[in-house]
Amino acid sequence: MTDIAHIEAAAARLAGHALRTPLLGSAFLNDIAGRRVWVKAECLQHTGSFKFRGGWSAVSALTPNQREKGVIAYSSGNHAQGVALAAQRHGAPCVIVMPGDAPRLKIANTRDLGAEVVLYDRERENRDAIGARIAAERSLTLIKPYDEVEVIAGQGTCGLEIAEQATEHRIRQADVIIPCGGGGLTAGVGLALESRAPGLRPRPAEPEGFDDTARSLASGEVCRNARLAGSLCDAIVTPAPGALTFPINRRLCGPGFAVTDDEALQAVALAFTRLKIVLEPGGAVALAAALFRPDQIEGDDVIVIASGGNIDAGLFASALSRFGG
Amino acid sequence: MTDIAHIEAAAARLAGHALRTPLLGSAFLNDIAGRRVWVKAECLQHTGSFKFRGGWSAVSALTPNQREKGVIAYSSGNHAQGVALAAQRHGAPCVIVMPGDAPRLKIANTRDLGAEVVLYDRERENRDAIGARIAAERSLTLIKPYDEVEVIAGQGTCGLEIAEQATEHRIRQADVIIPCGGGGLTAGVGLALESRAPGLRPRPAEPEGFDDTARSLASGEVCRNARLAGSLCDAIVTPAPGALTFPINRRLCGPGFAVTDDEALQAVALAFTRLKIVLEPGGAVALAAALFRPDQIEGDDVIVIASGGNIDAGLFASALSRFGG
Questions:
Q1: Which cofactor(s) does the record list (chains A, B) (predicted)?
Q2: Is B128 on the interface with A (CB under 8 A)?
Q3: Domain A4-50+148-323 in CATH 3.40.50.720
Q4: Residue extents of the structural domains in chain B
Q5: Residue B23: CB partners within 8 Å, gap ≥ 6?
Q6: Listing from the earlier edge strand, what are the strands of the sheet with B94-99?
Q7: Which residues of A touch B269 (CB under 8 A)?
Q8: Is the CB of B27 less than 8 angstroms away from the CB of A277?
């Protein structure tokens, strides 16, 4: 089980490799939210999302022998790129198993980061079986996207930075809203805050209709999502809270938020106009919660993580044209 | 004349108020440029450009009596917003003289930052005369956009940060390419580098056809631009190098770059895709120079300032649709 010692060790391994992302703000966003909004811009992290932290943490924690043999991950998105870049910089072979219908740009990017991309047919083939076979044949280490001690520790380094930055800005008491898929970022940040900034309370944000963590927190038991497709916030849609992450999140988190796709897109447009950062819808759900759910938040300050910015140009342009700029 | 002591004093006044902007990078951009490209993301600064530094420096350097009476600036753009926010946070009255045909959003933003906006008719009225009359009537202090000792000192604080960040990344020798209008940012950064990182050489970047500083540096004498309209990079089009800035820049700068509007737009699109930041064309000319003028640069590293991100949604969307993402 990940603890603060894992997170501190991960921070030491990430030093000089991950970016210390800035905490941004805008008087215009404060006016909308009715309180000060602080935006931890993880979209500026290498590969465009916080996932690089977990990827680096996991790859750098391998033994030399494991690293030489290489790693494998299943992902069509941000985890793939985070692991691929971390592996490349460690000189570790890397296989990414992706669906054949993944966007061509994402496949090309993952290859350009030095990974071997293995495509599978979503309809006819089983991803886990393909991955398990390749991993066994080549003795690769599987790096899961959230249910992995060192991945959670890596994401937790974002929480250490938030604790420091909150102190710099004299923020002692606030909700910290975190985009939540499998819950790795939420769990890691929660553990870091528990130890370093106990006045800061983690709260997950999810897309409406895919708020498995919010419902699980409310009921105390693991709830699954009815669907796995149909959200613009694809980066944070997962079947259910993780086996490692949920026990942490149940212990540490305040109530979750659920926002609509349109609210996420509006947050994307406001982040463009007011913060000059590029967010993907899934990366904007925490900002959307801060802006559009003010009655569910207490206090003069709220901190949100803007977790990723890997969005297609067409969708971004349509968010701007629908919600101004 | 601004010197390093002014810049250090400005940095002390800006501490805790201006953002220490991150130095970003991307392996994909390195591939295009053929060397490591480091991007100082000043678009993330408050009000979306480095101009907040100069505005804060100037307003905070006023005597209590001057501050109480207030400040005035002429600008339709980034300088207006930088001065307005700095004045608001100092409780100083602020008048901004803007052309009546300035974009309504910019007028609204400047008002929302607490400034009194005085509109004039570009065709029939003289801006300087209007400004001088109001300043005299109310005893306001004029804050010029670049030919002002404390403004140059404020912009120089960006150079202090670049010197520190270069040291963190062990960059000892590199060109630092700087978007250049009147030359305030170039001069301030140049002075800071001269003192703190003498291996880093400032070089201005301008739009083609508006490269007054590059031509002035080449000839050793002040050259003017033939036109003042017709560039997408409106934020950095000025009639001629400044009276205070040019002597500094002539002493410190390497040769200038001129890039086309299309190259600037392509840099805007690449900054979206690879860095997840929002740039305006004028803020992207230094990045464009690093990417598209590799033969004019030496060494393994190049640092560029991404100086501003105040771009309309329509133009941004058209940059993405023309140059991909």
A1: Mn(2+); Ca(2+); pyridoxal 5'-phosphate; Mg(2+)
A2: no
A3: no
A4: 4-50+148-323, 52-142
A5: B38, B39, B40, B41, B162, B165, B169, B303
A6: B116-120, B94-99, B71-74, B141-142
A7: 313
A8: no
DSSP state letters, B106-175: HHHHHHHTTPEEEEE-TTTS-HHHHHHHHHHHHTPEE--SSSSHHHHHHHHHHHHHHHHHHHHTT--SEE
Whole-number CA gyration radius for chain A: 18
Q: Which of B49, B266, B270, B276 to mutate to test the interface with A (most CBs of A within 10 A)?
A: B276
Using a CB–CB cutoff of 8 Å, tell me whether A55 touches chain B.
no
Contact of B324 with chain A, judged by CB distance below 8 Å, is answered with yes
Partners of A18 on chain B (C-beta within 8 Å) are: none
Q: Shortest CA distance to A102 belongs to which of A117, A82, A84?
A: A117
The reply to whether A4-50+148-323 and A52-142 are identical in fold is: yes
Helix (H) or strand (E) holding B259: strand B257-259
Contact criterion met (CB < 8 Å) for A41 and B44: yes
Q: Are A123 and A135 in contact (CB under 8 A)?
A: no
Q: How far is CA B28 from CA A79, A248, B37, in A?
A: 18, 37, 10
Collapsed DSSP state (helix, strand, coil) of residue B56: helix
Contact of B113 with chain A, judged by CB distance below 8 Å, is answered with: yes
Question: Could you give the CA distance from residue A33 to residue B87 in angstroms, rounded to a whole number?
Answer: 23
What architecture (CATH level 2) is domain A52-142?
3-Layer(aba) Sandwich (3.40)
Range 184-223 of B in CB contact (< 8 A) with A:
none
**Residue carrying the six token digits 């809203």:** A177
* Interface check A41 vs B, CB under 8 A: yes
Give the gap in angstroms from C-alpha A313 to the nearest C-alpha of chain B: 5
What is the distance in angstroms between the Cα of B325 and the nearest Cα belonging to chain A? 5
**Which pLDDT tens digits describe chain B residue by residue (325 residues)?**
999 999 999 999 999 999 999 999 999 999 999 999 999 999 999 999 999 999 999 999 999 999 999 999 988 789 999 999 999 999 999 999 998 888 787 888 899 999 999 999 888 888 888 988 999 999 999 999 999 999 999 999 999 999 999 999 999 999 999 999 999 999 999 999 999 999 999 999 999 999 999 999 999 999 999 988 889 998 888 889 999 999 999 999 999 999 999 999 999 999 999 999 999 999 999 999 999 999 999 999 999 999 999 999 999 999 999 998 5
Closest C-alpha among A192, A264, A196 to residue A233: A264
Which residue, B102, B103, B66, B97, is CA-closest to B84? B97
Q: At which residue do the structure tokens 């053929």 appear?
A: B34
Minimum CA–CA partner of A317 in chain B: B317
3-state SS record for A258-300? EECHHHHHHHHHHHHHHHCECCCHHHHHHHHHHHHCHHHCCCC
Nearest by CB: A28 against B24, B26, B112: B112
Sheet holding A116-120, edge to edge: A116-120, A94-99, A71-74, A141-142
A191 phi and psi angles, rounded to 5 deg? -65, -40
- Alpha-carbon span A102 to B36, nearest angstrom: 30
